[in-house]
Design a protein that fits this description.
Layout lengths: L17 H9 L6 H7 L3 H6 L8 H22 L5 H12 L1 H10 L2 H4 L4 H5 L6 H18 L2 H12 L2 H12 L3
Helix pairs in contact: 2-9, 4-5, 4-9, 4-10, 6-9
């Protein structure tokens, strides 16, 4: 168990049965459910729940790095003749906001977000930036709860065929 990432494992948090469904969507069962709980906790939630000390921001930071590494390795293997610039563009397309928020929607991540009332009322649950952050935080939590190989399996399993995903993004990314 990693200490200092989130205080959920130190605070009594009510059981969230929906997180079991999220774990099924991820095809991964967390050993430390507190990490997943933290990953779905938007910073706005803390204002109304003083016993909860941490949001998903630190996990988002870590998850972004893990995602970058996994995508870099996968694209490096998939496109052996591509140069750095082309690989970087492809990685960017698969790791930026719109793609990640769409991926979050595919696994119904908005349903599981713990979010403050004010943020909820202003559409925060469906905001691309909140979903991107939560998706990265889930990846960070997954990595801490397991290892890089498991994180890679889950991430690439969620994304599916990189070639198909990139082809679907191509018209949006390249107007020519």
């Amino acid at each position: 168990m990693v200490f200092g990432v989130c205080n959920f494992h130190r605070v009594q948090v009510p059981e969230n049965p929906s997180l079991e469904a999220l774990q099924r969507r991820l095809d991964y069962s967390f050993r430390d459910a507190g990490l997943l709980e933290c990953a779905v906790t938007h910073p706005s939630y803390l204002q109304e729940h003083p016993a909860v000390k941490d949001s998903n921001q630190r996990l988002e930071f870590l998850g972004d790095a893990v995602l970058q590494l996994v995508l870099t390795e996968a694209l490096f293997d998939l496109f052996p003749s591509d140069r750095e610039g082309s690989l970087s563009q492809r990685r960017s397309a698969l790791s930026k906001g719109k793609f990640l928020s769409d991926l979050a929607r595919e696994i119904d991540l908005p349903v599981y977000l713990l979010i403050g009332t004010s943020e909820e009322q202003t559409g925060g649950r469906t905001r691309d930036s909140a979903l991107e952050d939560a998706m990265e935080a889930v990846i960070g939590a997954l990595y801490l709860d397991s290892d890089l190989l498991t994180a890679r399996r889950v991430i690439l399993g969620l994304i599916g065929s990189l070639s198909d995903r990139l082809a679907a993004l191509q018209p949006e990314e390249n107007p020519k």
